[in-house]
Automatic annotation (TrEMBL):
Pathway(s) served: Purine metabolism; IMP biosynthesis via de novo pathway; 5-amino-1-(5-phospho-D-ribosyl)imidazole from N(2)-formyl-N(1)-(5-phospho-D-ribosyl)glycinamide: step 2/2
NCBIfam families, alphabetized: purM
SUPFAM superfamilies, per the entry: PurM C-terminal domain-like, PurM N-terminal domain-like
Organism expressing this protein natively: Clostridium bovifaecis
Protein name (record): Phosphoribosylformylglycinamidine cyclo-ligase
GO molecular function annotation: ATP binding; phosphoribosylamine-glycine ligase activity; phosphoribosylformylglycinamidine cyclo-ligase activity
Domain PurM-like C-terminal: 171-327
Length: 331
């Protein structure tokens, strides 16, 4: 008699995996969580807001996963998945409330799946949001054994009259760039083409580990700044680099003028450039060392940078807003 296990799906391993990940998820539970894992749906009670707006975002990790497979390291890509979602909704002033993940594989291995969810849990703790559910799908014949895919979905909240949409941006506003932790989670198809030996030494460490450095989560830092300063616009520097993402914060006919010598280009990007990528293409593909950009009043800029540094991050005045024309001008 044919069985599901003979078809390649191990239900018992699925049960074991759920038990392995429950502890990771429970560490993220915040006040609004109403039920434990195992229900058909996650439930979350909204905090008290006058006119709440829910803000949602979904994303994956892309081909950075391939590096994780090759390095046999699975405990950080979950952080990337959370970061890509929460940093996006943060751009509109939203505080993340809860997160759900989706993991798919060819053959389920409980420890690897648990490592991935451990990363998701760590990312949620950093973003102060709850991991209230998810799905793990075993799909033999669709994915190669040993390979996984992961995607996530985040919901956040913001008062309607506090939504940041770029409508108050004006000429002369300053652009502050907050340092990234590395490549983050974009451009890895190019990275993998350039870096063919993941065991290669890079400043005393395997380059594979360097390019697996998880994406920085900016939630706590930026929400603290929003309590004290007027933040007019924000951009998460993801795929498309500076050219695509910075203009997304503008509603009007404005241009971002950015001084590319105003911040430290991370060493990993200098290395990638040395392997044959033109500088302009680098800025159109990677974050180049700046993972998040704030648009603020000029008179607040230096104090904001001081506060960012007090909270343990590095930031720079990277440019300003100019009326007329659209896009980004790198100087």
């Amino acid at each position: 008699m044919a069985t599901y296990k003979e078809a390649g799906v191990n239900i018992e391993e699925g049960y074991r995996t759920v038990n392995l990940i429950k502890d990771h998820a429970s560490k993220t539970f915040t006040t609004g969580v109403l039920n434990n894992l195992g229900s058909f749906a996650g439930m979350f009670e909204l905090p008290k807001y006058n006119n709440p707006v829910l803000v949602s975002g979904t994303d994956g990790v892309g081909t950075k996963l391939k590096v994780a497979f090759d390095m046999n390291k699975y405990d950080t890509i979950g952080i990337d998945c959370v970061a890509m979602c929460v940093n996006d909704i943060l751009c509109h002033g939203a505080k993340p409330l809860f997160f759900l993940d989706y993991i798919a594989c060819g053959k389920l291995e409980g420890e690897k799946a648990a490592d991935i969810v451990k990363g998701v849990s760590n990312g949620c703790i950093d973003a102060e949001c709850a991991l209230i559910g998810g799905e793990t799908a075993e799909m033999p014949g669709f994915y190669k054994e040993g390979e996984y895919d992961i995607a996530g979905f985040c919901v956040g909240i913001v008062e309607k009259d506090e939504i940041i949409d770029g409508s108050e941006i004006e000429s002369g506003d300053m652009l502050i760039g907050i340092e990234s932790s590395g490549i983050h989670s974009n451009g890895y198809s190019l990275v993998r083409k350039l870096v063919t030996d993941l065991d290669e030494d890079f400043n005393g460490e395997k380059i594979g580990n360097v390019i697996l450095t998880p994406t920085k989560i900016y939630v706590k830092l930026v929400l603290e700044l929003m309590k004290k300063y007027k933040i007019k616009g924000m951009a998460h520097i993801t795929g498309g680099g500076f050219y695509e993402n910075v203009p997304r914060m503008f509603k009007g006919d404005y241009k971002a003028v950015i001084n590319k010598d105003s911040f430290n280009v991370a060493e990993i990007f200098k290395h990638l450039m040395s392997l044959g990528v033109e500088e302009d293409h680098m800025f159109n593909t990677f974050n180049m060392g700046i993972g998040f950009v704030l648009c603020v009043n000029a008179e607040d800029s230096k104090n904001i940078i001081k506060d960012i540094e007090k909270m343990g991050d590095r930031a720079y005045e990277i440019g300003y807003v100019e009326a007329g024309g659209k896009g980004v001008c790198l100087r």
